[in-house]
Design the sequence.
């Protein structure tokens, strides 16, 4: 795990983006809240990035800070890394990963982008860097990504990144409205990675 922490729990850069580690402080929560406060929650139907995962996006500064603290405790501390995505100095999204040292497997965490940043290939750009780091520097054996079965945009993005569809987990995710959705599981193995 130490190698994962060393490689991934730090600020990273792609050709267009800065991936910044933001601690859950009031100052950082204000930056995040300013970026999401005017977003339409209907544009985030596949995201549950809120305290206790009850709705798509936080609805206040206080909820934003609470979510950042919850994520730090539940996801980052045990085996994760989380970045806030900046483009031209402006916060446009959030991206996380988990690593399981016992089977050398990386898994995607919560990913979202503000509406104006969707459809520009930013997620593909981030994954290109993470895949390269995971296989070339970390020595990962496998990377897994998941998306809701009805999320056609994410499916296309994941498949275009060279991942293979492994299967469907039926009724695995309860949404804020109480409905259950299927998830699709995709993987890419080290032996399938080309430098």
Sequence:
């Amino acid at each position: 795990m130490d190698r994962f922490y060393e490689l991934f729990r730090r600020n990273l850069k792609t050709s267009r983006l800065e991936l910044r580690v933001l601690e859950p402080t009031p100052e950082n929560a204000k930056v995040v809240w300013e970026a999401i406060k005017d977003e339409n929650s209907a544009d985030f139907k596949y995201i549950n990035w809120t305290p206790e995962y009850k709705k798509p996006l936080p609805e206040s500064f206080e909820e934003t800070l609470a979510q950042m603290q919850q994520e730090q405790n539940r996801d980052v501390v045990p085996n994760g890394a989380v970045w806030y995505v900046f483009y031209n100095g402006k916060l446009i999204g959030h991206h996380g990963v988990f690593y399981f040292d016992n089977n050398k497997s990386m898994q995607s965490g919560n990913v979202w982008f503000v509406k104006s940043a969707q459809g520009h290939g930013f997620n593909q750009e981030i994954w290109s860097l993470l895949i390269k780091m995971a296989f070339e520097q970390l020595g990962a054996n496998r990377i897994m990504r998941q998306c809701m079965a009805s999320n056609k945009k994410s499916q296309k993005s994941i498949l275009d990144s060279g991942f293979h569809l492994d299967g469907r987990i039926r009724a695995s995710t309860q949404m804020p409205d109480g409905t259950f959705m299927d998830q699709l599981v995709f993987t890419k193995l080290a032996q399938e990675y080309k430098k």
Remarks:
- The domain at 2-192 is CATH 3.40.630.30 (Aminopeptidase).
- Strands lie at 12-13, 17-20, 80-87, 90-100, 105-113, 142-148, 164-174, 180-189.
